[in-house]
Design a protein that fits this description.
A: 615 residues, Phenylalanyl-tRNA Synthetase, Chain B, domain 1, Phenylalanyl-tRNA Synthetase, Chain B, domain 3, B: seven-stranded mixed β-sheet, 8 helices
Chain lengths: 615, 267
């Protein structure tokens, strides 16, 4: 989530450190940071004035409950840097008062809608948002729409509660309203095939596993927790709104969002599950803000809360347990200090244990281990020492399959075979993958042979470059055939390609086998190479290595491989014939025959100079 | 080794080239990943970890459910999963962590309570587009240590020893950052820094992300039948390809499955 440094600052009296420091604080104590970007605010021409920084904070799924908001990140910053927040909006009392009789809310499915709060605001004026509000949204990459919609978005990014504003006059039956003076919003299951046009102008076809909000005509005016409807949306003529802040069950929202292929900032938050307590905070804040930026009167509130849970959730943890899990020796005071910084009220049950009263938004804190994590990350994991495990009491078992694979590797390598891995994905097979991103080769291979055949052909081309007389390959890998997963051993060479199931082996210990002593991989050229052979008569007794040295020094830097491949001694003439294979290749281009010819010509000249006869 | 090729970037081939009658069949090469697995298994075996395996085509039960991934939970989005056609409930395992629950469950069924120390090294799959740093099929190493007093500090110590031995006796620092995985609590990201003159310059004094780890979530122990009040443990899962890429400065993960001897014969 994009977090603005200036926005965070509104939570603190003390100036916050620079963006990088904030990013480091979060990285080592809370969340990964995907980016830190300076933002020039539009419409502001002062040097540096109005500029801001945006942190892209990767909020983990366990903290979607409370940290997909500036308030949540401010809370983290407050704990990590141990700077007090000015005021925490979620620690204030809010009352959805006065109540209004103008609106009736009916929840047919309380399991998926634990709470529905709403507010009627009359006599407002829709128009552009004030500069400060546009800037806040602009900085985090949100388009300003109008003062009412911007206010709902602002509160969502500030507190984490999604909101939606309906144009009250467009909720059907404004006529009916004048008769009985009431609006009605019903939370009901969508009908299969029911359609609604969203605020994004797209028509969505719903299924009966989704929820909608319907007005008194029965028409869906919003896809619950995902998208508001176009026909009842706020526009420049709106003067009366019904502002909704509801709570929706996460799995239902997740399924709806997946089925409609529609992810919204609202659905993202609901699918992470947020506290139903939050609707009151969000609604009250948004109503105030709308009254501030668009005028109008707050006519009153409605609050249906069938999912209310009574009682304070507490999680208990002991100092002994914390240290036993982390491997630390933290004192009770240090732990109490962490809870203070995190604003987790707690009682010392005994001098060595704590009972934490979990705040409304921290749905992630369920078990002692959750508190241990809080202690670990706030104290900092650098205070966890590195301690090796004590010696293990029992001798580990030998894995017979691995043992067999290792023996085969050694055996085959000794015979000149090199090991490859080819893909398990194939053009044909018995079992297929349902949802492959690149949609090529959707099958699971039924054999290794096909992949090895391809690999053999491809490597054949590079035989000379590799200096191989023959390409020999092997692979140990899974294949899926006859309804089972089988570990196969495949080999490929000049005689063909074959495979057998790998038989398990038995031994009391693994064999001591060599590992690669290579220090560094060197990228190879992707360009074709050129092979040239040269045969020379030299006086017998002349060492082939010496001859090769001369050749190499005149062949130039494009010579990537050179070796003797034949030798013949003529006893009568007292001369020996050496044949060498030279391989030329460039790292940045395809070599031409002429280039190779030029190199060879200088090799010939050098040979002649040495008195050798080119055959 | 020939002097003429010293300076050219292809020297690796020349160095590996045998002298004399070179076109005879020389010794082949094992894949760098196999070499790394061989070495890794040895290091962990010496620390008491047994190598365990499990199927690549795995049930959601072992891959997700028993690892504390609730059904229809956003945590499952973190894993881009390959599902199998006409076989609901089956996936290509998204991590070698599936072996954790398989192993513990089978031990408990046999009547063998902890302590446990296992590693699982093998292929895992993520349904994502491939590039230099990402592959749909890759190798992973998972380690699990469960006992009455296995701590997060033990995880740090175990990793430090592993990295030290794997990357050649250099001085190694291990750093944790907070993270989230459904099957560990607390969860951490592991960074490593190699210090010392022996370390290749590219790796020296730089923090590198190695993978995820943490203390086994009590729900994982419970679902396998292990007494979570009595036992605790650590687990980590790292990409073997990445370990190999760091070790040998390999720049493209796709080389691993290229079956290209221009790559493999360098090892």
């Amino acid at each position: 989530m994009n977090i603005s440094r200036e926005w965070l600052q509104t939570y603190f009296d003390k100036p916050l450190p620079e963006a990088q420091t904030l990013a480091d604080a979060l990285t080592f104590h809370a969340f990964e940071i995907d980016g830190i970007d300076p933002v020039k605010s539009h419409g502001d021409h002062g040097a540096g004035a109005g500029d801001d920084w945006v942190l892209d904070v990767k909020v983990t799924p366990n903290r979607g409950h409370d940290c997909l908001s500036h308030r949540g990140i401010a809370k983290e910053i407050s704990a990590i840097l141990d700077v007090p927040m000015k005021a925490d909006p979620l620690r204030q009392e809010v009352a959805l008062e006065p109540k209004t009789e103008d609106l009736q809310v009916k929840i047919e499915d309380a399991k998926h809608c634990p709470r529905f709060s709403a507010c009627r605001i009359k006599g407002l004026t829709v128009g552009p948002s004030p500069e400060w509000l546009r800037k806040r949204l602009d900085v985090i990459g949100q388009r300003s729409i109008n003062n009412v919609v911007d206010a709902t978005n602002y509160v969502m990014f500030d507190l984490g509660q999604p909101l939606h504003a309906f144009d009250a006059d467009k909720l059907v039956n404004s006529k009916q309203k004048t008769e009985n003076g009431k609006y009605q919003l019903n939370v009901r299951g969508a009908k299969a095939g029911e359609k609604m046009v969203g605020l994004d102008d797209k028509e969505y076809e719903l299924t009966d596993s989704m929820l909608v909000i319907a007005d008194s005509s029965g028409a869906a005016v919003s896809i619950a927790g995902v998208k508001g409807g176009k026909p009842t949306g706020v526009d420049e003529n709106t003067t009366d709104i019904i502002l909704e802040a509801a709570n929706w069950e996460g799995t239902m929202i997740r399924k709806t969002s997946q089925a409609l292929k529609l992810k919204t900032d609202a659905s993202e938050r609901f699918q992470q599950v947020i506290s139903p307590e939050l609707t009151a905070y969000g609604l009250s804040a948004a109503a105030q803000l709308i009254a501030d930026v668009a005028g109008g009167d707050i006519a009153g509130y409605v609050d249906e809360y069938p999912g209310r849970e009574d009682g304070q959730r507490e999680v208990y943890v002991s100092v002994q347990k914390i240290n036993a899990v982390l491997g630390t020796s933290l004192k009770p005071e240090a732990i109490a200090d962490v809870f203070r910084r995190l604003d987790l009220p707690c009682d010392e049950v005994t001098p060595d244990s704590f009972s934490v009263r979990v705040p409304l938004e921290r749905l992630d804190l369920q078990i002692p281990e959750d508190l241990i994590e809080e202690v670990g990350r706030i104290v900092g994991y650098d205070s966890v020492p590195a301690m090796e495990l004590p010696k293990f009491g029992k001798e580990p078992d030998i894995n017979g399959v691995f043992l067999a694979a290792e023996r085969k590797r050694e055996e085959l390598v000794a015979e000149g075979y090199s090991e490859v891995f080819t893909s398990v994905f194939a053009d044909e097979g018995e079992r297929a993958v349902l949802n492959k991103v690149d949609s090529t080769r959707p099958y699971l291979r039924a054999n290794l042979v096909d992949g090895l055949k391809e690999a053999l052909v491809r490597n054949e081309h590079n035989k000379d470059l590799l200096g191989l007389k023959e390409v020999r390959l092997f692979e140990i890998g899974m294949a899926w055939k006859g309804g089972t997963e089988v570990l196969m051993l495949g080999t490929a060479d000049a005689d063909g390609v074959r495979e057998v199931p790998l038989e398990e082996a038995k031994a009391d210990a693994y064999d001591a086998l060599p590992v690669s002593t290579t220090e560094k991989y060197r990228p190879f050229s992707k360009y074709p190479f050129i092979v040239r052979d040269i045969a020379l008569w030299v006086p017998s007794g002349e060492d082939s290595e010496e001859v090769l040295k001369v050749i190499r020094s005149h062949a130039g830097e494009l010579l990537v491989r050179s070796e003797k491949f034949d030798e013949y001694k003529n006893e009568k003439t007292g001369k020996t014939s050496y044949a060498f294979r030279l391989v030329f290749q460039s790292f940045d281009r395809t070599l031409t025959d002429e280039e190779a010819n030029v190199r060879m010509e200088s090799v010939y000249q050098a040979a002649k100079k040495e008195g050798w006869e080119v055959r | 080794m020939h002097g003429a090729c010293e300076a050219c970037p292809h020297a690796a081939f020349s160095e590996n080239a045998p002298q004399g009658y070179t076109l005879e069949m020389e010794r082949g090469h094992i894949h760098p990943v196999s070499s790394l697995i061989r070495e890794t298994n040895r290091i962990f075996f010496d620390m008491g970890f047994a190598l365990e395996s499990g199927p690549l085509l795995e049930s959601e039960r072992y891959n997700f459910d028993m690892l504390n991934f609730p059904k229809d939970h956003p945590a499952r989005d973190m894993q881009d999963t390959f599902f199998i056609k006409d076989e609901p409930g089956m996936v290509l395992r998204t991590h070698t962590s599936s072996v954790q629950s398989r192993y513990m469950e089978s031990q408990i069924k046999r009547g063998d309570p902890p302590p446990y120390r296992i590693v699982s090294i093998g292929k895992a799959f993520r349904n994502e587009a491939t590039d230099m740093g990402h592959e749909a099929e890759f190798f992973q190493i998972e380690a699990l240590a469960v006992g009455e007093d296995v701590t997060l500090a033990n995880l740090k110590g175990t990793l430090a020893r592993f990295f030290r031995e794997l990357y050649g006796g250099a001085s190694v620092e291990v750093r944790f950052r907070p993270s989230f995985f459904p099957f560990t609590e607390p969860s951490v990201e592991v960074d490593m820094r190699l210090v010392g003159e022996h370390v290749p310059e590219k790796l020296r004094d730089k923090w590198m992300e190695m993978g995820g780890a943490g203390m086994v979530h009590p729900n994982v122990l419970k679902s396998a039948g292990v007494d979570a009040d009595k036992y605790q443990g650590f687990a980590f899962g790292f990409g073997v390809d990445r370990l190999a890429m760091l070790k040998w400065s390999i720049d493209d993960i796709r080389l691993m499955h290229s079956a290209d001897l221009r790559f493999i014969n360098q090892f």
